User: Fold Short chain dehydrogenase from Exophiala bonariae.
Amino acid sequence: MSMGKTALIIGANRSIGLRLVKALQARGWTATGSIRVSSKEDESVKDSIINASKAFGSGPLDLLINNGAVGTQHLKWDEHTSENMMRLFSTNGPVQAIKHFYPGLKRSKFAKVINISSGSASITNNNGMNLGYRVSKTSLNQLTMTIAKEARANGDNIAVVAVYSGHLATRMSGFSFSHDMEEYINGVANLMDTIDISDTGRYINWKGETVPW
Ligand SMILES: NC(=O)c1ccc[n+]([C@@H]2O[C@H](COP(=O)([O-])OP(=O)(O)OC[C@H]3O[C@@H](n4cnc5c(N)ncnc54)[C@H](OP(=O)(O)O)[C@@H]3O)[C@@H](O)[C@H]2O)c1
Assistant:
């Protein structure tokens, strides 16, 4: 019996991540969501990525969605500490997750790495505030483009794309004003079927439209 296309969504205990798992399952994907044990220290978290990638086994991974992230409660630029900046960078830049799941992605005929970005990543659309989060998400976009270019240069059939899922009422956004949750999650889930290799390195929204860097 076919397992269907396989997907792993990192950071899926609630909100956008959990909804994406459900939306993909409804579309026939064999979708798994990861959750973390909140008491774990950084080293244990790194180990847990390695252990999870080993536990995933030797099958192909068709889709990796890097959704897990932390925000800052609308701090002014001079309220950021270096510890705060480093935490945002290390959590919101999923290099290790991509690295350890890359062998599984390479075993897919065509795989996708989707980095859940943000409208806040855009330098063009910057309206101030939230420096640390903005910088971490702009850096995620740079990470997306860089890995996309290297994957292509290596002949890997893997599209790496940054996707802005809309402004949605979640814990991170303080359950503030929102786009329509169902419409936007469905938009992102639909993209998982339509993104192809020509999309690699793009920064797009839930409708597949280009967002200005
Ligand atoms: N909501 C919006 O309006 C909005 C707008 C633009 C972009 N986004 C992006 O959408 C994604 C999901 O955010 P959300 O709004 O659903 O926020 P959320 O409700 O705060 O959920 C964040 C998720 O990330 C996980 N996470 C946090 N730190 C992690 C770590 N070190 N390792 C693994 N997972 C970790 C959380 O798990 P724990 O419970 O274990 O912390 C949780 O599952 C994020 O990338 C965010 O930047 C959201």
